[in-house]
User: Fold this.
Amino acid sequence: MRQTLLSIEPEVQEALKYNKPAAAMESSFIAHGLPYPQNYHLALEMLEIIREHGVVPAVTAVIDGKIKIGLSMNQIEEMSFKGGLYFKASASDFGALLAAGRDGATTVAGTIYAASLAGIKACVTGGIGGVHRGAAQSLDISQDLTCLSRFPVTVVSSGVKSILDLKLTLEYLETNGVPIIGYRTGYFPSFYTHQSSYELHHSVDSSRKAARMIKMYELLGWQGGILIVNPVPQKDSLSEEFINCIIEKGLKEVRENNIRGKMLTPFLLNYLSQESGGQCLKTNISLLKNNAELGAKISRDLLGNNK
Ligand code: PSU
Ligand code: MN
Assistant:
């Protein structure tokens, strides 16, 4: 019965049937995170990068009363152009959207859930949501974190933006038992910035070693997901002072306009891109491509022998 709620693109279906590698891709950054037409061109480039490694990409979404595992080019174009019409769909929104026939673009939480329903083991994103600054008062903690601990999917991301509280985000992940593995880094990356001051306990220097660790959790019957953090390439990394200065101004606007809930993250993302004069956008594009490449390699290596 559950399978009838999924609409899996034929090439993804084939990959799953014949045990060929597939990687899921978040869609909220296409619909809500980046401007048109850069979002469209980037999405296509990411699909191409994933394919170059022999992996079938599957952008996830909720469309026409189905959970989509893989979108057609037309659907990606439509989503890129009319992003605002798509609901920002976390896992807990799926049932409501399906019943109402409303379309949604998936957050990391939604993407992990969709991937786990389809049996896809890894997904690619830019940055995950986390614990917001001032969470002691607002209790604003992204569902991405709880879904990471609930569904057995590996997420490749560049850490979290410093619009969030990095320290509390790491504490929350630790409490919920989400393993964090640095890819060629010993520090948690903070999205636009190559590294933060927070040290990681585990890191790997190749996709094969990452796949080996993930398989070890599988062998142990680990029920939750794994977070692989992949820093933005050095050449596109922005300085922490530069970003923090813009974020402080953005947070002032948030307080003045009483912005809360689902709107908070998109508001801050939009503010950052506008105020940084295109630099944030360039960095965002660079890290997303980099994550597509690593996500593809890990998905490929998950099917190999990594001894
Ligand atoms: N952070 C980014 N870019 C994004 C998001 C977060 O740097 O596009 C999106 C992702 O879809 C993420 C979601 O899963 O925002 C988290 O939203 P919230 O904080 O409302 O849970
Ligand atoms: Mn929130």
About this structure: The mean pLDDT is 95. The longest helix spans residues 279-301. The domain at 2-302 is CATH 3.40.1790.10 (Indigoidine synthase fold).
